[in-house]
Write a structure and sequence with these properties.
Helices cover 30% and strands 23% of the residues. By secondary structure, it is an alpha/beta fold. Strands 1, 2, 3, 4, 5, 6, 17, 18 and 21 form a nine-stranded mixed sheet that branches. A five-stranded parallel sheet has the order 7-16-8-9-12. The protein has a three-stranded antiparallel sheet with strand order 13-14-15, with no helix packed on it. Helix 1 runs parallel beside helix 11, helix 5 crosses helix 10 and helix 7 packs across helix 8. The two termini are 26 Å apart.
């Protein structure tokens, strides 16, 4: 079978993949590249999710690309606005011609003899196989399974007479007007969905097993909008980005050094938002410390307004079974429903669930150490983007994209065809730690055993710290005593 050969292949045309392609276009203009996208459009998450009210839970001055200012007045943007921003970036950097849609990578095999990756790709609904080869592989496939979200096995689900939906597979024609809706879950998706559903539904119940930390913020950034009116666009964007990054870092730092203080501050603000008549202890006080899971952003306090108005309510309890007309809890209470929305999370996957081999040997990433949280021990010519769990995803995506371009340019200048992180003797017996520590959401805990390890020293740490990684990734030389260059 004839192979399509290029210098670089990017897997995924979402926020990270398009951003990385823009970096390549500007910083590595001599490199030929192709983007392989399993779906039929760009945008990734922001094209896949179509449920009512879908929006970011990060401000767009940090979720946006470093090289492309966010111009809209709203800093907390909805899904269509973010998708339009990604498409605009792709058009400005002439990325679209490089994308191959409906190309899903199934296998990737590295050959040290050829100094090439060989990718087995399934094309289109018919499943035709094509072969692509490249010297360097850039993984931007995200961290969750696009095929389906996480769905617990609820007893009696088949007996339910209404519509049962998962937000990842939202039906375009779902009619929830004047319907009794129950949303299972209290994470970011539920917090986003409920105010949007409450605008038309008869009533919406947020059914949670346990509460989540929530904080209300305006969806506009007055400082950003003022700076944009008095400064050149790039200056205003850079200043706002710096401000918001520092704020994110301060809140996360406070969560680590003074969790009880931050907990008290969050609950105090929550009581002020909700007013009287709510059981804060039972329904709004989590059993974990802040930032052991992501804080849920409530733009303009819209969820709290829905709760105060009576259009929505919160029930805390465990599900015993789904019944014909709703849900029965273990305490015996029944909640009636015409529609049940299972906002129960996602299924995490590693590198798009593709099979990877190096010189014929299968790679189990759980056995690998991550180098600067983007490459893997003994896996050549592969960089993967996995954003922050405590800040905007794109902050790390931009750092990694910039590093990948510098690495490619160094390899070209030094006539190197292979670059591999190696565990030398002094590091082979270092303490292995989970790839992400002190972060406990269920989607991560279910698949933590599939993720690579981090070590106990640099550059094998996954710090989840933008400030530290600016020094480790952006400001450091690509040549060190860990990367081995050959060929």
């Amino acid at each position: 079978m004839t192979a399509d050969i290029t210098d670089v292949i990017i897997v995924g045309a979402g926020l990270s993949g398009i951003g990385l392609a823009c970096h390549l276009h500007d910083k590595c203009p001599a490199k030929r590249y192709v983007i392989l996208e399993g779906r039929d459009s760009i945008g990734g998450t922001w094209d896949l999710f179509r449920y009512p009210g879908v929006r970011s839970d990060s401000d767009m001055h940090t979720l946006g690309y470093r090289f492309k200012p966010w111009r809209a007045e709203k800093a907390i943007a909805d899904g269509p606005a973010i998708l339009a921003y990604i498409k605009e970036a792709a058009a400005e950097h002439r990325v679209a011609d490089h994308i191959r849609f409906r190309h899903r990578v199934r296998k990737a095999a590295w050959s040290s003899d050829e100094r090439l990756w060989t990718l087995e790709v399934t094309v289109g609904p018919g499943g035709t196989t094509r072969i692509f080869k490249c010297n360097f592989l850039l993984m931007c496939s995200g961290y969750f399974d696009y095929k389906s979200g996480y769905q617990p096995q609820f007893s009696g689900r088949e007996s339910f007479l209404g519509d049962f939906v998962h937000p990842q597979e939202w039906p375009e024609d779902l009619n929830y007007r004047d319907k009794q809706v129950v949303v299972i879950g209290s994470g970011a998706t539920a917090v986003t969905l409920i105010p949007a559903l409450a605008e038309k539904a008869k009533h919406v119940v947020m059914l949670q097993r346990s509460p989540t930390y929530m904080v209300a913020l305006p969806d506009t950034d007055r400082v950003a909008n003022f700076l944009r009116s008095v400064l050149p666009e790039n200056w205003a964007y850079a200043a706002t980005r710096w401000k918001n990054i520092r704020l994110q870092q301060f809140v996360y730092y406070l969560a680590r050094v003074a969790p009880h203080k931050l907990r008290s501050l969050l609950l105090k603000r929550l009581r002020k938002e909700l007013g009287q008549g709510f059981d804060i202890g039972k329904d709004f006080t989590p059993h974990y410390d802040p930032w052991e899971q992501r804080l849920c952003l409530v733009p303009n306090g819209d969820l709290f307004e829905s709760l105060r108005s009576g259009k929505a309510s919160v029930v805390t309890g465990e599900i015993a079974a789904i019944v014909a007309n709703g849900i029965r809890l273990k305490c015996g209470r029944e909640i009636s429903a015409d529609i049940i929305v299972s906002a129960t999370g996602l299924n995490l996957c590693v590198l798009g669930d593709m099979q990877v081999t190096v010189d014929g040997a299968a790679v189990n990433f759980a056995d690998k150490y991550s180098y600067k949280a983007m490459m893997f021990s003994d896996v050549p010519n592969l960089v993967s983007i996995f954003g922050y769990v405590n800040a905007s995803w794109t902050l790390r995506a931009d750092l990694v994209a910039d590093y990948a371009c510098r690495l490619l340019n160094h390899m070209a200048a030094s006539n190197s065809r292979q670059c591999t992180p190696r565990l030398h003797s002094q590091n082979r017996h270092m303490t292995a730690k989970p790839w992400i520590e002190n972060f406990s959401p269920n989607y991560l805990q279910r698949k933590q055993h599939l993720l690579p390890k981090q070590g106990d020293r640099q550059p094998w740490l996954n710090t989840q710290s933008y400030a530290m990684e600016k020094k480790l990734i952006r400001d450091s030389d690509v040549v060190d005593d860990v990367l081995e260059f050959n060929g």
